[in-house]
């Protein structure tokens, strides 16, 4: 199989998730745009906007409803501003050397989406021919998405309709790609079809909210690595140790194409809202794990507010603005993102280098080197809450690291 054809510009990039609703008191595109110089200075490359479509009114949850219950795929939520505002934002992002992708929910819509009347045959129906709320089931849980209804991908005409809706945002606004919600609930052949068609307009960057390796075959540049997030949490809670990490990566290498991008994160909107904020999940270990996520492999994600230490769970269905405090982690993230950009060994997929793990004789200390061409980055991290001693493999010297201390060396 030929190598996946990533957009060349993605090779050294990071990604930043923008929760427009909660980003500012106004919750608008124009209010967010005031943060662009700050984000550019911090080193952010790709901006991912959470859904921008009007939110369904029927059966909505809470006051504001879910941004993932769209009412019209080719309209902009008026609470965010005008389409002229969005076009200006994309133009400004591009002028600053950054990129912008939007969230796309192809699996389901709000109950009052315009397609319900215009194309009723595009929806799943029960035995009585009635629409029904979508229920999500996986090996760990069942979720009742009562505010949305599922689309019927057995109808090939829907494929063309969805493709046309996605193409609208590429042709009219020059966006750079899509983050595709619950991508694995939609047939992979649809994604193969739609990405082939969309790439005829522009070579897009495609992110799947899913982890199935087959999505990398033709459709998606990047998938989520939920497993690594869970492993980091288990280490932070003392249930596992840093010694588990090399085995985890070895398993990934056998499952995924070598050129697959994996998204590595310390949180995202789902994890933050429904499970834990950064302080709950990591506590004092947060910076150590953020370094791990930014330097070990894959493309690092930063979620809105993490540069001000996101120690609250942002409400999903209500207005709940981020407390920006004093941006106390902004310089920390700036250094990490600059490190990635300036060191090709840390780049994404096969553009970078795999980590080579070094023996430390201490299961709590992770030591790895990423090296390609004339570039080398060495990282040592104590992923425990106690001071740890370890042996440096190349020098055989014994060294000590304080709780959650990390050391990064470039050569």
TrEMBL record:
It holds the Pfam family Alpha-amylase. Transmembrane segments: none annotated. Residues 1-340 form the Glycosyl hydrolase family 13 catalytic domain. SMART domains: Aamy (SM00642). Gene3D superfamilies: Glycosidases (3.20.20.80). GO terms for biological process: carbohydrate metabolic process. InterPro entries: GH, GH13_cat_dom. Signal peptide: none annotated. This is Alpha amylase catalytic region. It comes from Vibrio sinaloensis DSM 21326. The lineage of its organism: Bacteria, Pseudomonadati, Pseudomonadota, Gammaproteobacteria, Vibrionales.
């Amino acid at each position: 199989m030929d190598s996946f054809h990533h957009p060349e510009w993605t090779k050294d990039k990071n990604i930043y998730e923008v929760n427009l609703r909660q980003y500012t008191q106004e919750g608008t595109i124009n209010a967010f745009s005031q943060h662009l110089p700050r984000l550019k200075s911090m080193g952010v490359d790709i901006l991912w906007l959470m859904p921008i479509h009007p939110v369904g009114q029927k059966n909505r949850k809470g006051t504001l409803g879910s941004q993932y219950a769209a009412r019209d795929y080719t309209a902009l939520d008026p609470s965010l501003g005008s389409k002229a505002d969005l076009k200006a934002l994309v133009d400004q992002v591009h002028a600053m050397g950054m990129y912008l992708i939007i969230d796309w929910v192809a699996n389901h819509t709000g109950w009052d989406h315009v397609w319900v009347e215009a194309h009723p045959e595009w929806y799943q129906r029960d035995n009585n021919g009635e629409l029904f709320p979508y229920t999500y089931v996986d090996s760990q849980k069942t979720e009742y998405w009562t505010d949305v209804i599922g689309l019927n991908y057995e109808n090939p005409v829907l494929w063309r309709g969805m493709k046309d809706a996605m193409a609208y945002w590429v042709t009219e606004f020059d966006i750079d790609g899509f983050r595709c919600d619950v991508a694995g609930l939609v047939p992979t052949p649809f994604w193969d079809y739609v990405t082939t068609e969309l790439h005829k307009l522009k070579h897009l960057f495609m992110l799947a909210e899913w982890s199935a390796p087959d999505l990398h075959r033709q459709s998606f540049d990047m998938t989520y690595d939920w497993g690594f997030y869970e492993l980091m949490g288990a280490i932070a809670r003392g249930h596992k140790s840093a010694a588990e990490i090399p085995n985890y990566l070895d398993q990934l290498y056998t499952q995924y194409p070598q050129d697959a991008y994996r998204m590595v994160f310390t949180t995202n909107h789902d994890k933050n809202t429904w499970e834990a904020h950064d302080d709950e999940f990591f506590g004092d270990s947060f910076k150590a794990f953020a370094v791990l996520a930014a330097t070990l492999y894959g493309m690092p994600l930063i979620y809105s507010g993490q540069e001000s230490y996101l120690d609250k769970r942002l409400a999903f269905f209500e207005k709940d603005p981020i407390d920006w405090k004093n941006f106390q982690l902004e310089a920390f993230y700036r250094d990490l993102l600059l490190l990635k950009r300036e060191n090709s060994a840390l780049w994404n997929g096969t553009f970078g280098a795999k980590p080579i793990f070094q023996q430390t004789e201490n299961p709590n200390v992770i030591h790895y080197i990423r090296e390609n061409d004339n570039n080398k980055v060495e990282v040592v991290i104590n992923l425990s809450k106690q001071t740890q001693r370890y042996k440096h493999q190349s020098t055989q010297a014994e060294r000590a690291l304080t709780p959650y201390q990390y050391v990064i060396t470039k050569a």
